């Protein structure tokens, strides 16, 4: 994702990928509602071939209807990670990213004006790559993070869960999980006779090193916990994960940056892990491209850490809270009862849904009190001056800033930044758009889809120049 974003920003980039061939395992089975929007902002959704969304989800096993929040869902349904990787890799290569598979990074050296990365192939060949920056997207055991000396504090594993993707059997689906004597079981149906079964065996003690279980071990535990025999099925993939939760103290140290699992690891609940990584990349991409291109205002690249570190910390917090509700024994029942009582209140439900989906993220973007400030631009159908329909997300396909002009008077306001910001005259002709933009004269949207400035009717230019300078630097002519 980051490679694609950098290419949209006009920056040359190389991806050094240890795996020689793309992943063919399902792994993450979808992504959150906000990540669906992020892919839509780049025009990527059609490449997934169509998928459903999960409306009924949960928070720690307590059921919630995610449609209660506009644009809300528990996420994309049954989209294997292998497909997501394939879609993003093809997109990045089409944009000109150089993806070099089969190269494992072994070391890097930071210099005054760049970094030198060393890597080796499985055959023992060596290569050195020089760049302006290096971004570690290399997972929870990130070599880049370790070599940069970035601390990774948090908690060790206290819970271990095992799973198998199996075909040729029928299993009762349990999409929100089910507490059973001795633990918890979860089951997603992926086809007529294809299931992902996951379980927590309370008697199991997490090992220091996570070792992949055998299918026989999974089948035996599933039979013991549920009474269902899956041993005759054909395992496609088996694995194990824990609730180890850690976060890098900083996402940037000089010319070294971190994204995804290299920056944060946690119990995988609700597709939040991969989704948080994708959103890290979209937040970072345009800022890093601006830095390399030379027009980034002071502090723009540092705002990556300032904005995304709190988001990552909140993911760790909510997954640990869900683990406690989900996996604790009967001693937690009073807490579960109180929690379920609280979800009778709409404000509590929408708070939890916004937290898990990422739809409630709000960045500090500058002065003003409009409800849209710092929040994502929702999908809206607008109309151009000639009556042609204009999809708000379509305007973000090129990962440039967008100035939505509802009055026709702000066109000159963004003209000096035309190399970085597209000014688009639009009107609201449907009810949803009119309600969202009521009293608004113009809206400045960052390349990552978050609103950076709102001009009210009657004073549509007030503060625009300052907002453009804060996020898009000094005009090219100056």
From TrEMBL:
Signal peptide: none annotated. One of its GO terms (molecular function) is monooxygenase activity. Residues 1-318 form the FAD-binding domain. Its cofactor is FAD. The keyword Oxidoreductase applies. Keywords: FAD, Flavoprotein, Monooxygenase, Oxidoreductase. This is Monooxygenase.
